[in-house]
């Protein structure tokens, strides 16, 4: 009988681009044998990646992999700009974002200067609460279920802050997606929190600190931001794009570097085998580069394109992993 492989999944943030992650998770949840071959011991996410991680986790613990795959898709169906007014707003915002990335001097406005309700944040809240019973999360965490981790940054303390298991509230997920120039900070426990892109993107360390029988044998990173860039970024748009990509990758690479160092020490016998084990790291990347302005693009056709790409990249990953 083949021994089950403990797997932890980490979902990088990146706005609408994380619809790609939804496609990866959908294929992964429907294809992998989560009874005999794999056991999910943890799943984490930041920003848009947190939506996916939460949906996958909640679907799994309530009704299994098929339900989880459906739920990840349902979240993005509801977040997409579907009606006429929303499509117009989406096109306008995308155009403004592209102009800003190209260096066009445009007036800047704090989200605190915008009158009225935070429509975007409230829409995300409504979508999440439609599909997730947040009050039930603590009960599911008391069972032997995968660890759930959401990443934010504590604005006041100036440190990374993660919310784990029963501490994952709708406020924590909104905080993880609170892009500072778009949304107001989210107050939790007397501190203000911003987007998880500034923090561990995605969180990895929390999932490594588990009992020996629950430690990940493999860590699957669903990576939104391209790791490499050919040549030198010279145009204003290329520089903006690359800065955006690097901001989402540097903290991740630091965490993975520490895991790789532990792996080396385990192999060299410098750490006790009964307490430490090797974790193989795999990255599932998009394989395509999209302009950073499209990270706010909720056009249904673009969302579907990213989900389809995620399906394909996951299928390729699982095929090559065999």
TrEMBL record:
PROSITE patterns in alphabetical order: PNPLA
A Pfam match: Patatin
Keywords, in A-Z order: Lipid metabolism
Domain PNPLA: 9-208
Top-level division of the source organism's lineage: Archaea
One of the GO BP terms on file: lipid metabolic process
Name of the protein described by the UniProt record: Patatin protein
Originating species: Halorhabdus tiamatea SARL4B
Phylogenetic placement of the source organism: Archaea, Methanobacteriati, Methanobacteriota, Stenosarchaea group, Halobacteria
């Amino acid at each position: 009988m083949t021994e089950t492989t403990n797997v932890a999944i980490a979902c990088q943030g990146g706005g609408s681009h994380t619809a790609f992650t939804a496609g990866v998770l959908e294929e992964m949840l429907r294809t992998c044998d989560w009874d005999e071959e794999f056991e999910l011991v943890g799943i984490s996410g930041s920003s848009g990646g947190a939506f996916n991680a939460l949906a996958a986790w909640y679907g799994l613990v309530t009704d299994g992999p098929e339900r989880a795959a459906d739920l990840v898709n349902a979240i993005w169906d509801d977040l997409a700009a579907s009606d006429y007014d929303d499509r117009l707003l989406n096109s306008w915002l995308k155009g403004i974002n592209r102009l800003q990335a190209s260096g066009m001097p445009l007036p800047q406005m704090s989200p605190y200067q915008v009158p009225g309700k935070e429509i975007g944040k409230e829409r995300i809240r409504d979508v999440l609460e439609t599909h997730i019973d947040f009050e039930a999360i603590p009960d599911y965490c008391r069972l032997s279920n995968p660890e759930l981790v959401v990443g934010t940054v504590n604005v006041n303390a100036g440190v990374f802050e993660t919310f784990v298991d029963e501490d994952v509230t709708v406020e924590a997920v909104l905080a993880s997606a609170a892009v500072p120039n778009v949304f107001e900070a989210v107050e939790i426990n007397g501190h203000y929190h911003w987007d998880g892109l500034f923090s561990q993107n995605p969180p990895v360390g929390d999932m490594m600190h588990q009992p020996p029988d629950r430690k990940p044998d493999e860590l699957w990173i669903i990576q939104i931001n391209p790791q490499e860039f050919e040549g030198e970024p010279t145009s204003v748009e290329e520089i903006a794009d690359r800065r955006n990509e690097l901001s989402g990758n540097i903290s991740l690479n630091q965490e993975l570097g520490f895991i790789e160092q532990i792996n080396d020490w385990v192999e060299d016998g410098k750490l006790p085998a009964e307490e430490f084990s090797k974790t193989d790291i795999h990255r599932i990347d998009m394989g395509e580069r999209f302009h950073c302005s499209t990270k706010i693009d909720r056009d249904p056709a673009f969302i579907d394109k990213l989900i389809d790409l995620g399906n394909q990249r996951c299928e390729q990953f699982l095929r090559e992993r065999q």
